[in-house]
From TrEMBL:
PANTHER family: CAFFEOYL-COA O-METHYLTRANSFERASE 3-RELATED, O-METHYLTRANSFERASE-RELATED. PROSITE patterns: SAM_OMT_I. This is Class I SAM-dependent methyltransferase. CDD domains: AdoMet_MTases. Gene3D superfamilies: Vaccinia Virus protein VP39. SUPFAM superfamilies: S-adenosyl-L-methionine-dependent methyltransferases. GO terms for molecular function: O-methyltransferase activity; S-adenosylmethionine-dependent methyltransferase activity. InterPro entries: Cation-dep_OMT, SAM-dependent_MTases_sf, SAM_O-MeTrfase. Keywords: Methyltransferase, S-adenosyl-L-methionine, Transferase.
Amino acid sequence: MADQIVATPEIREYVRAVSLREDPILAELRQQTAGLPGGSAMQVMAEEGQLLALLVGLSGARSVLEIGTFTGYSTLCMARALPPDGTVVTLDLDGRWPAIGAEFWQRAGVAERIDVRIGDATRTLAALADEQGGDSFDLVFIDADKANYGTYYEAALRLARPEGLIVIDNTLFFGRVVDPDSHDPDTAAVRALNASLRDDPRVDVSMLTMADGITLARKR
């Protein structure tokens, strides 16, 4: 049985050459974000944005919840994949970052599909549960502060519909999850969530060694 190949820079460039479909609007948003402090590290890879769009389409999603907007690259990818009456509710602590993406959402013709909620995510998630009830989202994407990943996951489980998909980014967290010297709160929270997901009877789960680690959890 073949083992997994190592994703060398040459392999990554090949994959991009034969599969990536990043258009000028997405490319421009990526370039503008890369110029921000920590921008390159915080935004999703182009390939991951494309995967998110594919997952939205495959799941037939009409309602998406995104926990962590930043400049809205992933938001744009998912909004484009929705039907015209679909909605992405996207959460961020600071409104200045989604404001950067708003121009690009408008240019792409999907701004009306995007509902930005600014504030502490735990409070916003509680408000969404009161507003829309449980089982109200087809797909949830978690990509926010890592220390609260366990809290966000539990909220996602409440808000996702049965057989809904939860996508969790950064579950390998720059490789720190396997570094015995990494004990910071963010790494500890990601490790704890990863360990709990393996045995969580509420979901079917698969961790992908793509980008910085992407975990897919389907609510049973």
